[in-house]
Specification:
By secondary structure, the chain is α+β, with helices and mostly antiparallel strands. Helices cover 31% and strands 16% of the residues. It has helices at 52-66, 82-92, 102-109, 113-121, 152-163; strands at 12-16, 19-28, 31-40, 100-101, 134-135. It has a three-stranded antiparallel sheet with strand order 1-2-3, covered by helices on one side.
């Protein structure tokens, strides 16, 4: 049996326009819930769902890739601190096709942009909690705890923003250079 290294960590792996999405589930008592979604580079092969929660998550991820207006409804493992959950709730309120800056969310929560950025980086459920909709005041900002301008995760962030209709003219800094 030839198992791709790392694939055993996931309950399913779904192909994505930018690579793949790893889906991890966790059983708590009698219920299996989504534990984590992970952006994976293109060399990961798809993996069939191993349980009902992974199947449900895989189906919804595929639906989102087909339709940016799709709304997720998944059983999530409780994660994050009280502050992180407040940031994530604020992020979930950002409409598709729009972005907010770390500073705007920080002001709303009476916090600091860096703390908001750290909460974004700690998001266990990207896509479900659309942290890609949060940007820096003067550019794209980081994503998934990375700020490598030409790295994989920022390529994913650009794809997601395009997919949702947040075109360069719709972002606060209006710099076409961040959308190569």
């Amino acid at each position: 049996m030839n198992i791709q290294q790392g694939s055993e960590l996931f309950s399913a792996i779904v192909g994505a326009p930018f690579g793949a999405m790893g889906i991890r589930t966790e059983t708590q008592g009698e219920q299996t819930r989504l534990r984590e979604l992970v952006y994976l580079p293109p060399h990961y092969q798809e993996k069939a769902p191993q349980d009902a929660a992974a199947e449900q998550a895989a189906e919804q991820v595929v639906r989102y890739f087909a339709d940016a207006d799709f709304r997720f409804d998944l059983p999530l493992v409780e994660a994050g601190s009280v502050f992180q959950r407040r940031v994530w709730e604020s992020i979930c309120a950002i409409p598709r096709g729009s972005v907010r800056t770390y500073g705007q969310i920080a002001k709303l929560l009476e916090s600091h942009p860096r703390a908001v950025g750290q909460a974004c980086g700690a998001n266990w459920f990207p896509l479900v909690i659309p942290c890609h909709r949060v940007t820096a005041a003067g550019g794209l900002g980081g994503f998934a705890s990375s700020d490598d301008e030409h790295g994989f995760t920022l390529t994913v962030k650009r794809w997601l923003l395009r997919h949702e209709g947040a075109l360069p003219t719709d972002v606060p800094w209006q710099q076409q250079s961040i959308f190569p």
